[in-house]
Design a protein that fits this description.
Blueprint lengths: L1 H18 L4 H13 L14 H13 L9 H5 L4 H8 L11 H8 L11 H17 L7 H21 L5 H27 L5 H27 L19 H17 L8 H20 L5 H28 L4 H30 L1
Helix pairs in contact: 1-5, 2-3, 3-13, 7-8, 7-10, 8-9, 9-10, 9-12, 11-12, 11-14, 12-13, 13-14
């Protein structure tokens, strides 16, 4: 019967996740609840979970290792029906359970829904998207499948997430605005990469970068006001985010992108189109993920920093292939290696600090 219960717990977790529309707040609460009850281990082998869920499962499995129940689950959970199972693993109180004062207070912390088209932050995001699309029409054709698509996607995401954040729930507004802020910072990264390759001018960059900065400031101010008023008593993150341009790993990642473009423009790479595309994608992905990590929630920061490290690992493998083919030298590999090591060390330290912050 234990295997049946494991399967039921997994199905119930998937169902709850879909009902919550994959809200990171509900997912985290559900996983913590399963960890406290000693059954989070049943999710460890799920194949349809994202990296953020994997990180949380590992964290809570570690934090609540002593709680885990591996035998006689049916006896421990007192399972008699699927309804009882749902109640046993649900993070929500049953109808017969009276919610605490804290939860009653949170229920009242709702927002008034407004017409988002009148919101200055939305108007600025729409202006940014339009100008980015216009600018990208002059990019080289070989960048359409990557830089153009990526910068248009990130710019569009800002507007879309602001629109999705216009709802009654305080926590979900913070969630959607956090993603919008991350997308704005990612857009800045693609703009800097584009300027570095002279696809856009310094004046064009400054204009669009100023727009993204305005959007971030407006969203930050809006969240700050909500936290002080409607969000009192709620565990909401600080809405202020650092300027990614002051982050050492990000600046080194931009230098890495320039170096990769420089070497892949040489005639030795003319016959290696697949490798060229992969090298550029890994390098630019590293910079873009570092930028997008500069948002509100620790879990999301961790995820994007981790994706940057993955991009670096992929770059390492490709560069070794280039060395074997004789299209880059040992000296060039070492020069790039200095940047890679610096980025990896900064990100590893940052992620370690985030883990301590989360645990605290």
């Amino acid at each position: 019967m234990t295997n049946n219960i494991v399967n039921q717990i997994q199905r119930e977790y998937r169902r709850n996740r879909e009902l919550s529309n994959y809200s990171i707040f509900d997912i985290e609460a559900s996983l913590k609840n399963l960890a406290e009850k000693g059954i989070i281990w049943v999710l460890k082998d799920l194949r349809d979970i994202c990296e953020a869920e994997e990180i949380l499962i590992e964290k809570y499995l570690h934090d609540y290792r002593a709680n885990q129940i591996y035998d006689n689950l049916e006896e421990f959970l007192n399972i008699q029906s699927s309804k009882n199972l749902t109640e046993a693993i649900s993070s929500k109180p049953s109808q017969s359970t009276k919610p605490s004062k804290e939860k009653q207070t949170k229920k009242r912390q709702h927002l008034e829904v407004r017409d988002v088209t009148h919101f200055i932050g939305y108007k600025k995001a729409m202006e940014l998207e339009k100008k980015v699309i216009e600018l990208c029409q002059n990019f080289p054709s070989y960048e359409v499948d990557y830089i153009v698509n990526q910068i248009e996607r990130s710019a569009s995401s800002i507007k879309e997430r602001i629109e999705m954040g216009e709802q009654i729930y305080v926590g979900e507004k913070f969630n959607q605005y956090s993603i919008a802020i991350g997308s704005a910072k990612e857009t800045t990264a693609w703009l800097q990469i584009s300027m570095g390759q002279e696809y856009i001018t310094r004046d064009q960059f400054d204009e669009l970068d100023n727009l993204t900065t305005q959007v971030v400031r407006i969203l930050t101010k809006s969240l700050s006001n909500i936290k002080e008023k409607e969000g009192k008593g709620m565990d909401l993150p600080c809405p202020y985010t650092p300027d990614v341009k002051n982050f050492g790993a990000y600046n080194n990642a931009l230098l890495l992108v320039e170096k990769i473009y420089e070497i892949t423009n040489r005639k030795e790479f003319w016959k290696e189109k697949i490798i060229v595309k992969k090298l550029r994608r890994r390098a630019t992905s590293c910079a873009a993920n570092i930028a997008e990590a500069h948002q509100l929630y620790i879990l999301k920061k961790f995820r994007f920093f981790n994706d940057s490290l993955k991009a670096l690992d992929g770059l390492d493998s490709l560069l070794e292939t280039c060395l074997f083919k004789g299209i880059i030298s040992e000296k060039e590999l070492k020069e790039i290696g200095v940047l890679r090591i610096s980025i990896r060390n900064i990100l590893s330290t940052k992620m370690s600090n985030l883990s301590k912050e989360k645990a605290g």
